[in-house]
Known about the structure:
By secondary structure, this protein is mainly alpha-helical. The protein has helices at residues 11-24, 28-53, 61-81. It has three helices and no strands. The protein is elongated.
Amino acid sequence: MSTQITVRLDDGLHEHAIRAAAEAGTTLSDWIRTAVARQAATAKALRARAEEDAHPAVYRPEQEQALMADRRRRAATTLHDT
């Protein structure tokens, strides 16, 4: 199921979106849909990270460094795949 919405863009953002969609080889609607999905995924990841960071550390510093490195790899992979 899909829902149709209307979004008002100023002229500059509209031109940017049209250029970006053309460079991506997609339609404006598809490009905006992807941008919204990526933004939603980013917001979800930031909320999860904030929740995780609100808790006291349960790992030794070297374990924490390894976990943070793994977190950065996962984030890079997620953003690359989106």
